[in-house]
Design a protein that fits this description.
The protein is α+β, with helices and mostly antiparallel strands. 35% of the residues lie in helices and 9% in strands. InterPro entries: ArsR-like_HTH, RepA_N, WH-like_DNA-bd_sf, WH_DNA-bd_sf.
Length: 113
């Protein structure tokens, strides 16, 4: 259990957190899909730093469904559904790799107008 004991001050160090893009608030997606996207986007920043790119120069993430489910505290069925939602919304692309290897997940960023 987390012990909550301090008020936020100007000197309080922040705990680790996920970026949550504002555009997700406007989309008709499940909360699990939105949190999955935020987690994938966070992981994509690590992939950027490690230069995990494909032949097109696009950054990809490797994240198994089981690992996503564990991190999100959801079932693998819920995470699979969330990934399908994100794919249908055009926010991710999954590409198969070798047999029995996790897919490469490409996180897409919508055009902001």
């Amino acid at each position: 259990m987390i012990n909550i004991s301090e008020y936020l001050t100007t000197q309080t160090p922040l705990p680790p957190f996920l970026p949550y893009p504002r555009f997700l608030l406007e989309l008709d997606l499940s909360q699990t899909a939105k949190m999955t996207y935020a987690l994938l986007l966070d992981r994509a920043t690590l992939s950027q730093k490690n230069l995990w790119i494909d032949e097109r120069g696009f950054v990809f993430v490797i994240f198994t469904i089981c690992s996503l489910a564990e991190q999100l505290g959801r079932s693998t069925v819920s995470v699979s559904s969330a990934l399908k939602e994100l794919d249908a919304a055009g926010l991710i692309e999954r590409r198969r790799t070798r047999f029995s290897s996790p897919n490469h997940i490409f996180v897409k960023i919508p055009n902001v107008e």
